[in-house]
Amino acid sequence: MQRIPARIGDRVDDIETPALVVDLDRFERNIERMAQATNALRLRPHAKSHKCATIAKSQIARGAVGICCQKTDEAAAFVDAGVRDVLVTNEIVAPRKIGRLVDLARRATIGVLVDALQPVAMLAHAAQRAETALDVYVEIDVGARRCGVSSGDAVVDLARAISDARGVRFRGLHAYHGAAQHLREPQARAEAIAVAAGIARRLRERIVASGMRCDIVTGAGSGTWRFERDSGVYDELQPGSYVFMDADYARNVPAEGDVRFEQSLFVVAAVMSVPSGEQAVVDAGLKALSFDSGLPQIAARDGIEYVKASDEHGVLRVVPHASPLALDERVWLVPGHCDPTVNLYDWLVAVRKGVVEDVWPIEARGALG
Amino acid sequence: MQRIPARIGDRVDDIETPALVVDLDRFERNIERMAQATNALRLRPHAKSHKCATIAKSQIARGAVGICCQKTDEAAAFVDAGVRDVLVTNEIVAPRKIGRLVDLARRATIGVLVDALQPVAMLAHAAQRAETALDVYVEIDVGARRCGVSSGDAVVDLARAISDARGVRFRGLHAYHGAAQHLREPQARAEAIAVAAGIARRLRERIVASGMRCDIVTGAGSGTWRFERDSGVYDELQPGSYVFMDADYARNVPAEGDVRFEQSLFVVAAVMSVPSGEQAVVDAGLKALSFDSGLPQIAARDGIEYVKASDEHGVLRVVPHASPLALDERVWLVPGHCDPTVNLYDWLVAVRKGVVEDVWPIEARGALG
Lengths: 369, 369
Description:
The structure is a homodimer.
Chain A: E1 19-23, H1 24-37, E2 42-43, H2 53-61, E3 67-69, H3 72-80, E4 85-91, H4 95-105, E5 109-114, H5 117-129, E6 134-139, H6 152-164, E7 168-174, H7 186-209, E8 216-219, H8 225-229, E9 236-237, H9 247-250, E10 265-276, E11 279-282, E12 297-298, E13 304-309, E14 314-318, E15 330-334, H10 338-342, E16 347-352, E17 355-361
Parallel strand pairs in A: 1-16, 2-9, 3-4, 4-5, 5-6, 6-7, 7-8, 8-9
Antiparallel strand pairs in A: 1-10, 10-11, 10-15, 11-14, 12-15, 13-14, 16-17
Helix pairs in contact in A: 3-4, 4-5, 5-6, 6-7
């Protein structure tokens, strides 16, 4: 467990580095804007972005029906912290993981995805033994080409198997298009989600035509949620990253009239070496930030650029004539990708107007199982 | 804190996925081979690779003089676990971090680097107040162009400042060439280290000519250590990754007669979806492996390839006519880069001949401060 990097009341310059920091004013505006923009539908934010029960409860307090997560251990962390409705947006097929899931279902509403028949029987059997029930959604492939089924026959077969089994309740379709979230042009995102919504509509119609109910089509992420919202097909939206944003989401060109979310998440680093006027080195590298979506950006300071990372070093280039960096000077970095960056930290330092207001545990950090 | 993914005596197929696993036979051969190959010099393995006190103690039991690490919190984790000699191969300039360092120096031999004058005074002052002493090394830039000084005058000035101050002991030069570790051709690595050793020799001579001792030149990594060993300049070697190896080190072309280290570290994942005969999806993505040095490789199984990662999914491509993957089937992945992958896990499952022999805590996971 990491040392707590700050105390309530500390000034931000006293936070020990590197630290994961959220700007509360921006964060709260993000929560509020998404709540308002989605209030005609069910909002079930994805908690894989923040892994933090304090944030999940803020979202639920502002109207979210519950949260999503990806792993049974994440679900356990949130249920243990008092969240009462969790959808695991993933196929869970390992017997021990299924065992944990049905244990959680005795304390909370727990949903899970299937894209094959065999796990339906396993989920049903485990839920019956635990004298509980699971909500089950059929994952459909709406263009991401990852998990999920796509043929009408396969979807109807799965819906039928779930509907016919005891211990599992067929709730609807999971229709998430991950690959569309980072299409840079709004038109490309709109077109991808139009296709996704068309597939979801058609498959729901097949289920209904087969004599079953299909109450919920759920999906969407922070890059596309307004298109799913306006599709007339989706009942529930799952954006997660909007609470924080990151350098990669900032590269998406917004659509006209898009709700604006603010960068609220930062890694605060400190300069530990200034080998020349053109270079400084900070204490945050590959173990302090995730680099899968590119290098971090520098917040609130001109003339420096993060150009290279090694395990525990970040090399900054200082442009000519920029003011030089001093030893131990703080540098606020915008992570390239918020989700895996958050997963590196046990604590999230919540600041407002330059002062530490709270330090939140990231309960589901490392919850891989 | 993550759930412990296995119990002693479990068969490897019962380890909960994803899990970080070390093959003990291979690991022990790696430890032994490095100990033998470096027995004419001081071996101080870098513990930033494994962050695990059990492994540090194995290395020390087999002759290592102590360990290296990168952060004061790493040093604290190892000292708390009983390691008595730790070199922090980094500039520590923040007052509170220096405070922790001198506290540790009351319980263990603690070394640290400097590449500027101001921290020398801070380290000396803090050590005197704590009534202890720190070993201090001047970091020289031998080609990595990261931290460190390179001019003879600057090195002599720093050595003099350390030698003249109370509370700090000038121990020598830190001469690590990180950028040379992954040069693919052995000739390129040899040439880079020849240059590095030449710089270190010249700067040591400057210090000695100025009337000071310069006892230790320390450096080297798993990609180049035999060149530093054979240079006649280096007194102490710091390889770390050799205990585990990874996909990126495997891309280095070995030099003739190189000591061979075996891939001992794996992330064991499980199949959670088989959407088609050509594709399977495992439960290990960006939060289970570090992708900064490329995608993981598949161990011990032909016909499948890890082609794409998202946060919690890894997409495998199955070549035509390969045997298909089954739900919940285990897949052993070789991480692209071992160090930041280890940093994602709280536990390392130690296996031998298909059985879990032990589960080791990764005490310094997340130790960023």
